[in-house]
Amino acid sequence: METDSPRSPEAEIGHRVEDLWEVAQPQLSPSEKLNSCFEDIPVAAFPRTHPSQVIEIPSDASLADTVETLSKNKILSAPIRNVDAPEDATWIDKYIGIVEFAGIAMWLLHQSDASGNGTAGSAVGSPVANLAARLGSFTFRRTSSGRVETTTDSESDEAASVGGSFFETLTSSEFYKNTKVGDISGSFRWAPFLALQTSDTFLTMLLLLSKYRMKSLPVVDMGGNKIENIITQSSVVHMLAECVGLPWFESWGTKKLSELGLPLMKPYRLVKVNEDQPVLKAFQLMREKGVGGVPVMNTNGTKAIGNISIRDVQYLLSAPKIYKQYRTISAKDFLTAVRHHLQEQHEASPLLHDVITCKRDDVIKEIILKLDSTKIHRIYVVDDKGDTEGVITLRDIISKLVHEPRHYFGDFFDGVVPLPANSTV
């Protein structure tokens, strides 16, 4: 069948799926056909990030420099390169882990006086120790290998309330400037991160990004010494947006959200924060519930007036002066201050937009195009009155594209299970 030339590398993948779709065994269900198509395409075919855009952070970089790098490049995470590793080291030895905004948010939320252990921390009575006292029990301790371990207790709204001057004081402290990114990196038991090999399949990649909750996946050649590509949930949804119009995509993309079982979460389980609650409560909830963002609800809790995502922690650390006038910083104060700051700096950001919403009767294709065009990671589902009743994330969308065959991963995860949540940031 003759078709127009693909308009992008992502669309080229779509045409490749289309070719496989047309010759797939007729007895397969549409879901099984999609699985079969994606199982036949290697990860090496996924459009590559330009080498200059694969951002690495040296292990001796300060936390302040790391926040600036992630923010400037508009990325959620980056691999940490071991500055002590030789140039010809394999990727397993060349990198020590991944730093994410989620880990930075945890660091911010749970600083404590760890001086009793002779590890990272600050003097009693300092701003950092005062925050720790308000947020609950938390300690850093260093293992024999030098990695930092953490323990935490739950936090309250009162604990999360800090004055607007706190963040400026914290970010100007020697403690903040001297904290190294290597101290807050996440890691796996046998390797610095869970990586895909170039020979792995699209099906493996899509399952890891959805069912197994990975937000990004470095791609490596086993035995190689560099990261060949980094595939994110966002890049996969962009690929899907580029496939609009292809028969295989339309057969799936024209289904209503309700037909696909979206949103996945019942309304009463939606993780949210009230506009009057402290902004730190939003980041606490993200960490406790394992979500990447929360809606900021109006006073009666029915409608979302904004969204705070995990990456927005950058504005507490990179622009602390914008909160000085606030005695305490509520979620609404945070949104107002950051929007004003972004407008002054002429910066584009999803925070400047109204909350993006949809309804259960919308088709999945429309949601993909909205998320891709606005460069956001979640869209809120509203009812006929405009009340918020659910959320759909990039992960949710990918999870409805493929399913995991029985015993598919086999021993894939042996030895690469992440360290316990209370062991490594």
Task: Characterise the protein shown here.
The chain is an alpha/beta fold and 425 residues long. The chain is 34% helix and 15% strand. The chain is built from 17 helices and 14 strands. The protein has helices spanning 9-23, 30-39, 63-72, 91-94, 101-109, 127-135, 157-160, 166-171, 174-178, 202-209, 233-241, 247-253, 279-289, 314-318, 331-345, 364-374, 394-399, and strands at residues 57-58, 77-81, 95-100, 138-142, 148-152, 196-197, 216-220, 227-232, 273-274, 293-297, 304-309, 357-358, 378-382, 388-393. The strands form five sheets. The protein has a three-stranded mixed beta sheet with strand order 1-2-3. Helix 1 (9-23) crosses helix 2. This is CBS domain-containing protein.
